[in-house]
Amino acid sequence: MNVVIVGHVDHGKSTLVGRLLADTGTLGDGKLEKVQETCRRSGKKFEYAFLLDALEEEQGQGITIDAARVFFRTDLRDYIIIDAPGHIEFLKNMVTGAARAEAAVLLIDAKEGVRENSRRHGYLLSMLGIKQIIVAVNKIDLVNHDQGAFKAIVKEYSDFLDGLGVVPLHFVPVSARDGDNIAGKGDHLPWYDGPTILQALDGLKRAASDDQQPLRLPVQDVYKFNDAGDDRRVIAGRIASGTLRVDDKVLFMPSGKRSTVASLEVFSAKTPDMLRPGDIASVTLTEQVFVSRGDIMCHADSQPKVSTKLKVNLFWLGKTPMTMGKRYKLKLATAAVDVTIDAIDRVLDASALDASENKDHVARHDVAELVLRTRKPVAFDSSAELESTGRFVIVDGFDIAGGGIVREAIDDELEGRRLERQIRDTEWVRGEITPAMRAKLNGHDAAMIMLTGDAEAGKHAIARALESELVRAGNHAYLLDGKNVFLGIDADIAFDDVDELVRRFGETANILLDAGLIVVSTTNVIGLGDHRKIEAQVAPANMYLVHVGPEAEGLPEGADVLVDPGTAPDLAAQAILQALADQL
Fold first, then answer.
1. Pair 220, 197 in one domain
2. In terms of domains, do 284 and 189 share one?
3. What is the pLDDT of residues 299-331, one digit of tens each?
4. CA–CA separation, 245 vs 528, rounded Å?
């Protein structure tokens, strides 16, 4: 079991861990005596923290800088204890240490009482989804083992945690230096009848095994082999949860593509009957669907959520504040998508430690409840349901500047389109020729290239040139102009019924894509902001967005290619094909 030790600087975390190592006999013969002798020779007073703080800088300053990992065993189980730093400047290290923990021991100095990092760490533990928390009130000897001082801290910190929806399993008065209530009771606290720290740790419950949870295989890469007519696509990644076998029916989200596992590929080893959490998976499929890094493989009956809006708990460690309107990169599992703040619900101020609902930014060391909006749909789970696909980091430029957990998905304007598409695809009547067979015969996958831009940008001429280039190169392509759909299929509806115009346009494109074509599309009838609705309708076919116009505030989100409006149509078509060469 992974347990993280956190708390304000100098509240005794390393001493507590050192004492656990010594009192459980984990150190081995002579280690304790060796450290004691080293302290005697150097004129230092022996401290149990020295058993853990290996860095000279830490011993010199008396603080823990990194998140040290130590191991010890009780009669019940093995433990990995993560000693996380308490100093505010090393908060990122503390979060790194806590990220993989199943439980936490949070220390509070009985003499100093509840400090700002005591609150901050409590908030971060709740954000990371760590529900099993033991609060150790340390250095109880400095207040003469006073029960009243202990009860005052219990009340103050309980009230704070109650506001976060956190209920600690135990409050334990301890003296890590003297060993009271660590591995044994001691003689100084007769008024306390609860468990020792070691007993409290052994009382922790293990989380459900990852192999009993739904399948989540974030795709890291897809490998193709061309020698000797080998046309397999091998999908590679590490299984985060669940199990995988040959003949399993699988679904890839957010793309929505379906297939069946044909084989489990292993290099220079016996092929297993089943892959489990933590295993490296190399998988081939019976139907060669096009998937890419960022997709999550799952079983069809236990899908992750898909949305462009996520309600999250986030901590911010960037040098500059996280602000509304600025674009960042969200990394969740293997997906990396552009993201902005959609709404700030609440921010816990780093210095005052009070909540504000009127802030327009998240400052360094602040924690916040936000709604994030991604440029493209992303697959995820809430952290409470599945930890591996419910945690994320935020990248600002080239630096990891923040991270947190997904609390829930928020329905976006595309949710209805995705549901309609799933119902349609479930009942779709197919012929004998599968999409994979069409792609092999055509020499390319079905795809949609949508050109957007102002009415006078020249996108129609570029679309015609693009269709011509594709067909002359031996591809099966078709130009779908929005005006043709409007004059024909849309002849019975009003021009201002935009939602129905978009729906019919998307369904027309979907039929052409199901026929295996590369659909080149452009329209002035449908607004620039409707391309994402069409993309949701035509999935799992890939749609590429080409914007004809300068990069500006009105640029459609997620454009794959930008084209200068003054470019000659044939040159623009060649530039588009060159930019999309690796994707088509």
1. no
2. no
3. 988 999 988 889 998 888 888 999 998 989 999
4. 44
Q: How many Å apart are CA 463 and CA 522, to the nearest integer?
A: 7
Pairing mode of beta strands 280-285, 2-7: unpaired
Give the integer Cα–Cα distance in Å for 136 and 157: 11
The CA distance from 35 to 259, in Å, is 60
Per-residue H/E/C for 529-578: HHHHHHHHHHCCCEEEEEEECCCCCCCCCCCCEEECCCCCHHHHHHHHHH
CB 157 within 8 A of CB 128: no
- Is there a domain that residue 427 lies in? no
Whether residue 321 sits in one domain with residue 221: no
Q: Computed over its alpha carbons, how large is the radius of gyration of the chain?
A: 29
pTM of the model: 0.66
249/251 Cα distance (integer angstroms): 7
Q: Are the C-beta atoms of 280 and 240 separated by less than 8 Å?
A: no
Residues 55 and 195 in one domain: yes
Is the same domain home to 57 and 135? yes
Least confident of 14-23, 224-233, 474-483: 224-233
Least confident of 186-190, 384-388, 547-551: 547-551
| 569-579 and 459-472 helices, crossing angle to 10° | 60
155 and 261: one domain? no
Query: Which of 273, 299, 325 marks a domain boundary?
Result: 299
Q: How many CA atoms lie within 13 A of 222 on its CB side?
A: 17
Half-sphere exposure of 154 (CA within 13 A, CB side): 14
Choosing from 281, 299, 317, the residue where a domain stops is 299
- Scored b (16 or more CB within 10 A) or e, 436-449 reads bebbeebebbbbbb
CATH code of 500's domain: 3.40.50.300
Q: Is residue 423 part of a domain?
A: no
- Distance CA(58)–CA(66), nearest Å, equals 9
Contact between 86 and 117 (Cβ < 8 Å): yes
How long, in residues, is the chain? 584
pLDDT digits (tens, 9 = 90+) for 124-172: 777 777 889 999 999 999 999 999 999 999 999 998 888 777 889 999 9
Same domain? 190 vs 87: yes
Nearest 5°: CA angle at 14, between 9 and 20?
145
Question: Could you list the residue range(s) of the whole structural domain that residue 48 is in?
Answer: 2-202
* Among the listed residues 119, 64, 122, the one whose alpha carbon sits nearest the alpha carbon of residue 351: 119
**Residue pair 385/302 in contact by the 8 Å Cβ criterion:** no
- CA distances (Å), origin 461, targets 54, 332, 348: 68, 39, 53
253 within a domain of the structure (yes/no): yes
The CA distance from 137 to 140, in Å, is 7
Helix axis angle for 415-427 and 531-538, nearest 10°, is: 30
Looking up residue 254, the CATH number of its domain turns out to be 2.40.30.10
Q: Look at the chain and report how many structural domains it folds into.
A: 4
**Position 252 confidence tier, pLDDT thresholds 50, 70, 90:** very high
- Half-sphere exposure of residue 560: CA atoms within 13 angstroms, side-chain side: 22
For 29, phi then psi, to 5°, come to -65, 130
Within this chain, do residues 29 and 172 fall inside the same structural domain, yes or no? yes
Strand partners, 371: 311, 343
